[in-house]
Amino acid sequence: MLRTQFEEELDKLHNQFYAMGTEVLAQINRTVRAFVSHDRELAQEIIEKDEIVNNYELKLEKKSLEIIALQQPVAHDLRTVITVLKASSDVERMGDHALSIAQATIRMKGEVRLKDVEEEISKMGRAVKLMVEETMHAYIKGDDEKAREIAASDKDIDEHYNRIQALAIEQIKENPEAIIAGKDYFQVLTYLERIGDYATNICEWVVYLKTGKIIEL
């Protein structure tokens, strides 16, 4: 394969990965909106679209392995393929957590809800969405310095998690009828926190792509 053709194949990998990230970003936004607005129809749509993300990962994995096997890339080219292969797995897991939030939306039908807690979950969801969005931009630009900054912001997601969990516990004590909903609140908080962790993982792969160093951010 000519060098120009090979570079085109790498560009396709980049673009497909970015498209996958954009799809998951939309799912994160919609699933949090569905949860706090109790929109079970929107939640069901998200569940039905989960296959789109899974298919992206399968295609990226297949294409990455084909390039490694047939082209035997070295140096930066190999890092590019490895980054896509690893980072797409992290994005797929983000999609899994978005799916789980949608399932919680449907499961909570008829339960006593806590408005203050849900408003805070909405804020946390926006912060997570922004983190994922910035991560994808850092990836497409190959900006390792920005990736480091984004990874550092994961502590803000953790702060959201701890604060909202404490708020939920306090309000459930005052309103014991909300204890069933509380279980789902804690799970949704965990799903959002884990999405932030996977965004950090992708930031680490951006640093690897640019520098060749595997580090923990």
UniProtKB/TrEMBL annotation:
Gene3D superfamilies: Phosphate transport system protein phou homolog 2, domain 2. GO terms for biological process: intracellular phosphate ion homeostasis; negative regulation of phosphate metabolic process; phosphate ion transport. Belongs to the PhoU family. Plays a role in the regulation of phosphate uptake. GO terms for cellular component: cytoplasm. The keyword Cytoplasm applies. It comes from the Bacteria. Its main location: cytoplasm. It is found in: Cytoplasm. This is Phosphate-specific transport system accessory protein PhoU. Residues 20-104, 121-206 form the PhoU domain. PANTHER family: PHOSPHATE-SPECIFIC TRANSPORT SYSTEM ACCESSORY PROTEIN PHOU. Homodimer. Keywords: Cytoplasm, Phosphate transport, Transport. Pfam families: PhoU. InterPro entries: PhoU (IPR028366), PhoU-like_sf (IPR038078), PhoU_dom (IPR026022). NCBIfam families: phoU_full (TIGR02135).
